[in-house]
Amino acid sequence: MPPMPPLMRLRGLTRRYGESVVFGDVDLDVHPGEFIAVIGDSGVGKSTLLNCMAGLDHWDAGTVVHEGADLGAMDDRARAIWRRSHVGFVFQAFHVLPHLDVAQNVALPLVLLGQRDDGRVEKMLASVGLGGMGARLPQELSGGQLQRVAIARALIHRPPLLLADEPTGNLDPDTAARIMDLLIAQTREHHAALVLVTHAHSAAARADRTLRLTAGGMVNEPAAG
Ligand SMILES: Nc1ncnc2c1ncn2[C@@H]1O[C@H](COP(=O)(O)OP(=O)(O)OP(=O)(O)O)[C@@H](O)[C@H]1O
After folding, report:
1. 39 Cα to the center of ligand 1, angstroms
2. Does the ipTM exceed 0.90?
């Protein structure tokens, strides 16, 4: 059988600010359903790379291709439309909208895609441990609960690719461990690929593979132990 084509393929991806190269020559294949952890020194461009993969940032050389579609060839509008249906994004700072209640926050991707809820939001809230909390406002939630909302929102439209940028960075260690359990379990349940940027070795240890971003490209990080 021929090998499965990657969901997303990065080739020679390079990002500069003026004369200074943030990262260069990044090659990466993300396969359907796999969990990749990306680690690297502070400032090496992990968040920038993730934003490029989401089509939220631009790059200076190289390609990002998702299932044959070249993100670099799309204009901003086409990229936004692509992102809506194909990507879920979880940020360190939650990015939950304060004036919408929990259920409305989670339903947002469905609204943007013109899809019906069909009880999906309630089911999703229950599966992230927020059953019955749909009518609450974000200000009434803890940090861990806010990140559960963000995870539910990132997955509600069943995107094949979930990008998470330090999603537990603002949480205490116990809450962080529980949120990581949830993120991994939910990603697996939805058969999504997960690319996680993290400084936490405990989180990286749970990935199918760990890659280190360096100025010169992406290198395999040997498994610990
Ligand atoms: N507007 C800008 N102008 C110049 N350099 C910038 C700008 N924005 C970001 N940078 C630089 O780009 C680099 C990559 O930043 P990025 O946040 O992607 O790194 P990171 O690896 O995610 O860092 P951390 O682990 O600390 O979150 C940093 O060195 C940063 O100083």
Report:
1. 14
2. yes
